[in-house]
C-alpha cells in the first residue's frame, strides 16, 4: 500500500516538474499562463495600492493569494534544493505577500503597512523576466537593458509605496499615490521641483536614499540601452559566457575567443 502511494506521489511530482520545466506545448502554455498571472497580479497590487479595503477587494486578495500559494507550493515540492529555492529574494517576497493577503481579514493591523508588503510582489518580476528569457529570443537579445529597466521600475514603485505610507496616505483616492509617485520620480532624477517635500528627518533620509540609488539605476539603464549588448559565447578555458562584441580575448583568463559576428 505504501509503495503504491509512493509511486503515485512520484508520478504526480514528475507531471508537475514537466509542466514547470519541459519544452512540450502543454508545458509552455502552462508557463505562459503563469507569466500572464504574474503580470496581472503585479498590476493589480499597483492599481489597488491607494484603495481602501472593501469586501470585494478582500475576496480578490484571497483568490490571488490562493493562486500564489499554489504556485509557491508546487515550486517548493519539485525543487531539487528546497532551502536554496526558499532563500531566493522573490520566493521570500512571495511568502510575505501570501501572509499579508491571508492574515489581513483576521488581524487588526495598519493596512498601510500591508500595502508596502504587497508591493514586494514586484520582486517576482525578476523571475518573470528570467522565465521570458528562457522562452523568447527577444528577451535573450536584450537581457541587459530589460534587467536595468526592471531594476528602475521595481525601485520606483516599491519606493513610491513607502513614500505614500509615510507622507501621502491621508489624501483621498489616488491623489496621494500620484503625489508619492511624482515626488519619487522628481527626487530620483534630482529634478527637485520643491513643490512637494518631506520635512521630517526620516523623510529627508529617504529622499537622500532615493536620489543616490535612483541616479545609479538611471546610469545603469542608459549604459545598457546605448552600449552594444554583450555576446554570449562560453570561453573554452574558464567558462565565462558574456563578452564585449569586439572582444578577441577573454577578459577573465585571456584565452583567445572566436566570436560569431554578423556579416563575418
Distance between the amino and carboxyl termini: 64 Å
Q: Sheet with the most strands?
A: 2 strands, antiparallel
The secondary-structure class comes to mainly alpha
Task: Tell me how many strands there are.
Answer: 2
- Note the run of SSEs as H and E: HHHHHHHHHHHEE
Helicity level, as a percent range?
A: 55-70%
Give the neighbour order of strands across the main sheet. 1-2
| Low-confidence residue ranges | none
What is the percentage of strand-forming residues? under 5%
Number of helices: 11
Q: What would the principal axes of the Cα set say about the shape?
A: flat
Work out the radius of gyration.
22 Å
User: What's the mean pLDDT score?
Assistant: 80
Give a quick precis of the structure.
The chain is an all-alpha fold.
Could you describe the 3D structure shown?
The chain is built from eleven helices and two strands; from the N terminus they run H-H-H-H-H-H-H-H-H-H-H-E-E. It has helices at about 1-20, 25-45, 55-80, 80-85, 90-105, 110-120, 125-135, 135-140, 145-170, 175-190, 200-225; strands at about 230, 240-245. A two-stranded antiparallel sheet has the order 1-2. The mean pLDDT is about 80.
Layout of SSEs?
Layout: H1 2-21, H2 25-47, H3 55-78, H4 82-86, H5 89-103, H6 111-119, H7 124-135, H8 137-141, H9 143-168, H10 175-188, H11 201-226, E1 231-232, E2 242-243
Antiparallel strand pairs: 1-2
Helix pairs in contact: 1-2, 1-3, 2-7, 3-5, 5-6, 5-7, 6-9, 7-9, 9-10, 9-11
Amino acid at each position: 500500500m505504501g509503495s503504491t502511494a509512493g509511486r503515485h506521489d512520484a508520478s504526480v511530482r514528475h507531471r508537475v516538474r514537466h509542466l514547470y520545466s519541459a519544452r512540450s506545448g502543454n508545458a509552455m502554455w502552462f508557463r505562459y499562463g503563469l507569466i500572464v498571472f504574474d503580470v496581472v497580479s503585479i498590476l493589480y497590487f499597483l492599481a489597488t495600492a491607494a484603495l481602501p479595503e472593501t469586501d470585494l477587494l478582500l475576496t480578490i486578495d484571497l483568490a490571488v493569494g490562493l493562486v500564489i500559494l499554489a504556485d509557491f507550493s508546487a515550486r517548493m515540492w519539485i525543487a531539487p534544493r528546497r532551502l536554496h529555492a526558499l532563500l531566493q529574494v522573490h520566493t521570500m517576497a512571495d511568502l510575505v505577500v501570501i501572509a499579508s493577503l491571508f492574515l489581513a481579514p483576521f488581524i487588526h493591523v495598519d493596512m498601510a503597512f500591508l500595502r508596502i508588503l504587497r508591493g514586494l510582489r514586484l520582486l517576482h518580476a525578476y523571475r518573470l523576466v528570467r522565465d521570458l528569457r528562457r522562452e523568447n529570443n527577444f528577451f535573450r537579445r536584450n537581457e541587459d537593458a530589460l534587467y536595468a529597466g526592471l531594476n528602475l521600475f521595481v525601485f520606483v514603485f516599491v519606493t513610491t509605496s513607502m513614500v505614500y505610507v509615510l507622507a501621502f496616505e491621508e489624501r483621498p483616492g489616488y491623489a496621494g499615490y500620484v503625489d508619492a509617485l511624482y515626488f519619487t520620480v522628481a527626487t530620483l532624477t534630482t529634478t527637485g521641483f520643491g513643490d512637494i517635500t518631506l520635512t521630517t528627518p526620516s523623510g529627508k533620509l529617504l529622499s537622500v536614499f532615493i536620489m543616490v540609488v535612483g541616479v545609479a539605476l538611471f546610469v545603469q539603464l542608459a549604459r545598457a540601452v546605448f552600449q552594444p549588448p554583450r555576446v554570449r559565447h562560453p570561453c573554452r578555458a574558464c567558462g565565462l559566457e558574456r563578452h564585449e562584441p569586439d572582444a578577441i580575448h577573454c577578459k577573465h583568463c585571456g584565452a583567445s575567443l572566436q566570436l560569431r559576428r554578423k556579416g563575418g
